[in-house]
Design brief:
This protein is of the alpha/beta class. The chain has 15 helices and 17 strands. The protein has two domains: 69-201, Response regulator (Rossmann fold), CATH 3.40.50.2300; 223-439. Helix 9 (287-296) packs antiparallel against helix 10 and helix 11 (337-355) runs parallel beside helix 13 (378-388). The chain is globular and about 55 Å long.
Length: 442
């Protein structure tokens, strides 16, 4: 296969473009441009493509502009099917904004409406089990006038009745296989594919990011879903457990691909390829949440005390002030000690939350991503990741022998976009542009 492909991630803040040689996965050009949400996202996308030298070549796009995919989960029992569906939603690139369990009543519908979801993932019961709650919730959603599409992934015995209730009231519904067909058996792939389809068909156009239909026709998926595809491809190629920590402006996402250990599964199933989203941990819009969470986890003392920052001491109040400045001005560029400290705390807290309940001891490769790591000096980025990976007080099993690298050219998203049609180019891109990766093999 010869020729070039242009891979673009249209983010909420920046649009990143990579031009890839399909013959071997070489990166032949890259560029970024502020995302032009205020006018038309195609303005910034086209400018970035021209700057990268990709004009005229096939264009593959993923997007998290406009806040990405906001997902509400409605399930039967919070610790079983609702929990399983939440895990599936996160792997599909969604930000789970609401979880409801049990029979929906008026207050439940009000809470669902207040969360402003783009999609509702409706689940409940194992196949052949209790169908009453799923049927009830389907009928309540049908009459709730929420006007958002529904992905139905619950008890197969109730599927036809729920689809009939929803379509009878004009609610768009996509029915797929049960996310939890049996207790302890998690079946994420069909629901993940259905959520991707709904994201492309309903959400991208509904966010009014662009005039006309060209942008919607270019987008292949939500950025986190595409990145997870790239992470899975890399893990399969290397034959090793790995994790990715993506420190963003609004959220810090952690991805992991682990080897099933053969132990007895949890009642809601175990997702060995997973993603968690920490909506209160970010470098700009959520920077104050980082400080608040760090105080709660005793990584920082309460206001008025002293905390280590860089090589010196600075008041915790000063770090809180630095975080507040970033919230007030998300465009602030400040690669200083406060920036490093906030990034270190965000990465540490996100790994703590992701690692609790998962065994990450065999993770051999940890990849850092996000603007704060990509634009930092190698020394500063190394300190951020090293601190997060030596968090012995975090209550999670640390990787025993992990190599840490930074995805400075944002190739995980590009590889995820290439994976389906050009897998060899995707693998070549990852091996060539992620330092130390070629040394890890089967």
């Amino acid at each position: 296969m010869t020729g070039l492909a242009v891979c673009a991630d249209v983010g909420s803040t920046y649009t990143k473009v990579a031009v890839v040689d399909l013959a071997g996965g070489a990166l032949v050009g890259s560029a970024s441009h502020p995302t032009t949400v205020g006018t038309d996202v195609l303005d910034g996308l086209d400018a970035a493509v021209r700057a990268a030298g990709g004009a005229g070549h096939p264009l593959l796009v993923c997007s998290s502009a406009g806040g990405g995919l906001r997902l509400a989960v409605v399930g039967y029992e919070r610790l079983v099917t609702a929990r399983a569906a939440q895990q599936v939603g996160l792997t599909a690139g969604a930000r789970v904004v609401h979880v409801a369990a049990g029979r929906l009543d008026g207050a439940g519908i009000a809470g669902l409406r207040a969360a402003r979801p783009d999609v509702v993932l409706l689940v409940g019961g194992t196949d052949g089990g209790d169908a009453d709650v799923l049927t009830h919730n389907g009928r309540r959603l049908a009459t709730a006038r929420l006007r958002v599409p529904v992905v139905l992934a619950g008890n197969a015995d109730a599927r036809d009745a729920v689809v009939a209730a929803l379509t009878g009231r004009g609610v768009p519904v996509t029915a797929t296989e049960n996310v939890l067909p049996r207790i302890g058996v998690l079946n994420p792939a069909p629901a993940r594919a259905a959520l991707r389809e709904v994201f492309l068909r309903h959400v991208i156009g509904g966010k009014k990011l662009s005039r006309g239909g060209r942008f919607a026709s270019l987008v292949r998926g939500a950025t986190p879903d595409v990145v997870l595809t790239g992470v899975e491809l890399l893990a399969d190629e290397l034959g090793t457990d790995l994790a990715v920590v993506d420190v963003g402006g609004a959220t810090t996402d952690v991805y992991s691909v682990l080897t099933p250990d053969g132990t007895r599964p949890a009642v809601a199933g175990t997702l060995w390829r997973s993603r968690t989203v920490e909506g209160d941990l970010g470098m700009r819009w959520s920077a104050t949440g980082v400080v608040e969470a760090a105080v709660a986890e005793r990584l920082l003392p309460a206001a008025g005390a002293l905390a280590a920052v860089g090589d010196g001491l600075a008041a915790a109040d000063d770090l809180a002030a630095a975080a507040a400045a970033r919230v007030a001005d998300p465009g602030l560029v400040a690669l200083d000690d406060a920036e490093e400290r906030i990034a270190t705390l965000a990465a540490t807290l996100a790994l703590r939350r992701h690692g609790r309940g998962r065994d990450l001891r065999d993770v051999r490769l940890v990849i850092g991503s996000g603007g704060v790591l990509r634009h930092a000096s190698p020394e500063r980025a190394g300190r951020i990741l090293a601190a997060a990976l030596s968090d012995h007080a975090g209550g999670w099993p640390l990787p025993r022998a992990a190599t840490a690298v930074v995805d400075r050219e944002y190739v995980l998203a590009a590889a995820g976009l290439l994976a389906a049609e050009h897998p060899a180019a995707a693998v070549g891109l990852l091996r060539q542009r992620l330092p130390t990766v070629p040394s890890i093999s089967h």
